[in-house]
Amino acid sequence: MSIFPYIYYMIKSFAISDDDKQIAIYAGMVTSAFALAEFSTSVLWGKLSDHVGRKPILLTGLAGTGLSMLVFGFAPNLPVALLARALGGFLNGNIGVLQTTVAEVVPIKEQQPRAFAIMPFVWCFGSIIGSGLGGFFADPVKNFPTLFAQGTIFQRYPYLLPNLVSTLVVLVGLVVGILFLEETHEQKKHRRDIGLEMGQWLLRKLDACPNGSQYSKLEDANLDETTTLIDDCETPPSYLSTKDYHDLKSAQAECCAVDELSVLELDPEASETKEKPAAQRALTAQVMGNVVSYGILA
Question: Are 135 and 5 within 8 A, CB to CB?
């Protein structure tokens, strides 16, 4: 979003055409190269996140965005600018991965609408701030002659500064992600994360408590809100003798067994039900409706 305020003037500075219509076409090509590349690789990144985890893919997307911004800031001509934008799209097709991560962080369905509502808010807020920063820092030698002198690198690359600022913001986000972002994939979340361990060590050092007992382990705070201390077939007993305790446990086992048997009797085909292929389960009517709606809005 930060390139929108100055992309026309950047294309014009390449001196490839004096026709304003042609410049507008080239500007549209540069801005759409990111979206086209992101569209072509989003499914690939989603599948890859199922194998390596969500966190590595999200961090790769941030790193790819920062790299593409640097290349774009140093672009001397139109082909390099197109390549930089396409590179950012190829390495940042992780919108689906991000949405999946949010769903895994907030497993309670009643709270998911509130969580998903934060994403477009943050996106719009970042678009407003990013566009403002892009226009403010563009061509600093001309706009801030007292701070940026003639003959510096910012005169040769007048649109480098806004990309450097954006890269710095991305770098901060990358460091925060490495240190504090937890893996949410069910099969990958229990593996060792050196970056998260470094973040926990840093928090313990910055903690006001000398022994760090309040935040000894980050995972201690990640309690499942739906976890209950009593099973469905269990009632909170009063004081029980040893004999009464064993009798109660036997009754609870019979209760759960009867419930499972009754489910099978009501639906004898439940145990033989074959799952639909993954693609058919994913492409429901609601999902396809959302895809069409987003396409129209885009």
Answer: yes
Best CA proximity match to 252, nearest among 228, 233, 235, 231: 233
Cβ count near 34 (within 10 Å): 22
Residue 237: DSSP 8-state: -
pLDDT given at position 95: 84
For residue 176, give the 3-state DSSP assignment.
helix
Crossing angle of the two packed helices 194-206 and 160-180, in degrees rounded to 10: 90
Q: What single-letter amino acid sits at 238? A: S
Helix (H, G, I), strand (E, B) or coil at 212: coil
First to last CA, the chain: 14
Query: For residue 74, what are the CA distances in angstroms to 13, 63, 71, 217, 274?
Result: 13, 17, 5, 44, 55
Helical residues (DSSP H) of the chain, grouped into ranges: 7-13, 20-52, 54-73, 78-90, 95-105, 112-137, 140-143, 153-156, 160-180, 194-206, 242-266, 278-282, 285-297
CB-CB neighbours of 32 under 10 Å: 14
In this structure, the number of other CB atoms found within 10 A of the CB of residue 25 comes to 12
Q: What is the pLDDT of residues 178-189, one digit of tens each?
A: 999 999 998 888
Give the integer Cα–Cα distance in Å for 8 and 145: 22
Q: Is the dihedral of CA 175, 181, 186, 192 positive or negative?
A: positive
In this predicted structure, what is the pLDDT of residue 109?
83
Give mean pLDDT, residues 143-159: 92
User: Which structure tokens are listed for 6?
Assistant: 């100055």
Is the pLDDT score of 138 beyond 50? yes
pLDDT at 223: 46
Q: Encoding tokens for residue 81?
A: 């600018």
Structure tokens of 90? 């190829």
Give the mean pLDDT of 166-170.
93
